[in-house]
């Protein structure tokens, strides 16, 4: 019996590793749907609405890729993953891409064998505490109980931060954001720490968001972006340039409102190349000529997606900050479509 | 005169492997064995090749790397700069703690409920039936989550103990603090402690042994040895004269006297928990993740043990209890001296399975954030290093080793209580 279990595990691992080899683009086309890994639920980034339809900043990325590859932004199978299960899901081929607040780090890129195709949100780790604690800085948190999602970079940053400031803390490991929220609101932990954007999104769902403050310290760089498996560069290119298309569209002023007239042809050759009326960029990727047009039409350009899901008009209320276009003093920058 | 000739000596021919029934089964088994091993080799080779193509060849080197994460409940010293192996060891100890605590509690509750379920008192018997049926028919994961939710939502936060008019106060003469982060109880401290002995220097598997604890165990061992002597002497006197000398005060003195003297010598005092800053400090902190897991696992497994105990008791023929009452034994003595010792023979083997189940179910710990070995080695370490196959194999080996040790121990005990046929 014990042997069978071991063999079973080996078989699964063997099959899983085998499936990871190549040809994701063809697989997705043949399957007719894109398997996209998202969070188990973080309002604004990826969460199902009352009708069970997924929406959010990360979800829009999945939909844009599905629109670019399949011409249908609804042809996405959303696979909820936790901080712990996400990498196994991607490495085993269960999902084609992961768009889930995942920080681009050296070891994930090099050692875990993933390819980060770009950065769609420049984030940093922050702390949220109840106002009544009267804490104004993270360095005052000596002896505090901290809720932390396991298997994340934030867990390691937290250990480093407290260690380098020579203060102690008590970690309470949790698996999902919902669990963290429950423990934090019940007072089982004093502090909730994760990416600042996630904290803002979580706080927006509280009954009394005003009772909680985000501390000023941002203790890490958390560049978040979609990622795919190592070794399938064609597929990596598709996801990378879909993201770049959304960014370029904002830079060039192509929006979901004016894309109809723009795609009839403009006097800006880069817009024409982007929207497929000039050149063969789509064919080079192995996609239709109007791939980028479909991607942009699925949810708008980068700016529109940001504003609709997490921008200042939404309950989450994140300012563009670092995530503004480079032309506006931010870091969002796409290589040229040429 | 008859001439006896030996039957012609049969020489072994290759075809006999197939046609001779003496050898045929061995042949088939050998072939099956080879086929099985080939299959296994193919699967292992396949996994290794695929991992190599993926650029992740099998390697256990990650165990020596810096873990980088903290663990809240640690029985040995550990910080985020220790290795993944050390983190796995801390997790293993946490698994063992909850398994041992769970097995003991489940046995006590289970035996009690099992006996009570056979009670003649209608109300008690029915209450026990309800307990057994609710606990064993709901998945243990739900019980764990429910226990945790109750602990978190109903108990006061440490902050409620603060201020001039606190909404919560400590219990038992200000010595125990019950909060929604766990229970803080006083800890034993020694002002003239004998210190610890360190083993294995700076290695990942280093551990300390408290000399105080060893001193107590030695003294306790000597006390028990002395008590046995006293009891043996009392037995001899009883056999010779028919009168049993009073021994209970001597026994009591022997049991507690030397330990109390040792406690005074070592300067025993209690360290009480105190609210400092965000949390209570000092005392022993039993985190609510441990309490929830422990409670849920014990109560769940106890329901199964209760049924095993009930079955064991019912397996003893009624003649036994009738004979006992004919001798004038009271019901609870009948149970303790006549029925249970015989029932044990039936009870022990299925009990082993339940201990194993409890231990393996403790891997659900992550649901409440208890850092057992599945949480450290099989959770954070696996996630940070991306070594899924190696991690899972190590994890399986660890659980296998724990389970085999438990069943080995229990089988040894079973052999010592089983019916000795003469």
TrEMBL record, chain A:
It comes from Parasedimentitalea psychrophila. SUPFAM superfamilies: Periplasmic binding protein-like II. Residues 1-21 form the signal peptide. It holds the Pfam family SBP_bac_3. Belongs to the bacterial solute-binding protein 3 family. It comes from the Bacteria. This is Amino acid ABC transporter substrate-binding protein. Keywords: Signal, Transport. Residues 33-262 form the Solute-binding protein family 3/N-terminal domain. The keyword Cytoplasm does not apply. CDD domains: PBP2_BztA (cd13692). One of its GO terms (biological process) is amino acid transport.
UniProtKB/TrEMBL annotation, chain B:
Residues 92-410 form the ABC transmembrane type-1 domain. It is a multi-pass membrane protein. GO terms for molecular function: transmembrane transporter activity. The keyword Transmembrane helix applies. The keyword Cell membrane applies. It is found in: Cell inner membrane; Cell membrane. GO terms for cellular component: ATP-binding cassette (ABC) transporter complex. Signal peptide: none annotated. GO terms for biological process: amino acid transport. The chain crosses the membrane at residues 23-44, 87-113, 134-152, 209-227, 248-271, 291-316, 392-413. Keywords: Amino-acid transport, Cell membrane, Membrane, Transmembrane, Transmembrane helix, Transport. Its main location: membrane. Belongs to the binding-protein-dependent transport system permease family. HisMQ subfamily. NCBIfam families: HEQRo_perm_3TM. This is ABC transporter permease subunit.
